[in-house]
Amino acid sequence: MSTRQMIVVQCWDDGVTTDARLVDILRRHGARATFNLNAGLHARQRQAYWSYRGVEVSRLGWDEMQDVYAGFTIANHSLTHPHLKQMPVAAARREIAEGRERLQQFFRQAVRGFAYPFGSYSEAVMDLVRAAGHVYARTTGQHERPFPPENAMAFDPCCHFLDPDLWARYERARAGGVFYFWGHSYEMVSEAMWAAFEANIERLGADPESCWGDVADLFGAGSCSEENG
């Protein structure tokens, strides 16, 4: 990797049906991403769960998830998306450890990352996440220079993908070498939002001074993929 290149990483939560459209965009532009999933909330087929700004949100079914996420990285978002810091330790441990194990068995890949449901965590929860085998855990906070974090179990991204100052944050992140954004694909509720998102992905990929990476790789090799480097 050139010393000039900044690594761009992204992650998406909840395993919703609009992820299928999202990954089509990412594949068209050679972008990498991590998807944070709740193994205990998916049925065999798609199921509606809630409404967001008047649009029905459904989770993907297990029958389609291998195809939808092929080529992308899977991370743990707990088993059933609870407020972990409000739970007894034993229950929180099960949410974290069983969520990871079930994802590893289904996707046949090491699950190294974690995203806190609702951004809710505590020192005790961080200890449980680390003990379960994760190398990092993402918060919902923001940090101008997110990497390396003071504590890998409290890894703040730079911003949400819909933040109006995303590009300003992108430029400021160059000094630290990592730009990290996150979101939920169901938050794109109009064609204009989808078009704007694809334009951002295209613009990120076209920057010769950055390249796509995976979040967990920051805690290992920390390099860009060959196709982007």
Q: Which helices and strands occur, and which strands form pairs?
A:
Elements: E1 6-13, H1 19-28, E2 34-37, E3 47-52, E4 55-59, H2 62-68, E5 73-76, H3 89-107, E6 113-115, H4 123-131, E7 136-138, E8 159-160, H5 166-173, E9 178-183, H6 191-206, E10 210-212
Helix pairs in contact: 3-4
Mean pLDDT: 94
Spans where pLDDT lies below 50 across 5 or more residues: none
Whole-Å distance between the termini?
A: 6 Å
- Strand percent estimate: 15-25%
Order of secondary-structure elements: EHEEEHEHEHEEHEHE
Number of strands: 10
Q: CATH homologous superfamily, by name?
A: Glycoside hydrolase/deacetylase
Q: What is the rounded Rg?
A: 17 Å
Q: What's the shape?
A: globular
- Helix content bin: 25-40%
Oligomeric status: single chain
Q: What fold name stands as the CATH topology?
A: TIM Barrel
- CATH hierarchy class name: Alpha Beta
Instruction: Examine the secondary-structure arrangement and name the CATH architecture.
Output: Alpha-Beta Barrel
Biggest sheet character:
6 strands, parallel
Count of helical stretches: 6
Number of domains: 1
Q: Name the structural class.
A: alpha/beta
Descriptive account of the structure:
Helix content is 30%, strand content 19%. Helix 5 (166-173) links the parallel strand 8 (159-160) and strand 9 (178-183). Helix 3 runs parallel beside helix 4. The chain has a single domain (6-219), classed as Glycoside hydrolase/deacetylase (TIM Barrel, Alpha-Beta Barrel), CATH 3.20.20. With 229 residues, it is an alpha/beta fold. The chain is globular and about 45 Å long. The protein is built from six helices and ten strands, in the order βαβββαβαβαββαβαβ. The relative contact order is 0.20. Strands 1, 2, 5, 8, 9 and 10 form a six-stranded parallel sheet that branches. Strands 3-4 form a two-stranded antiparallel ribbon. The protein has a two-stranded parallel sheet with strand order 6-7.
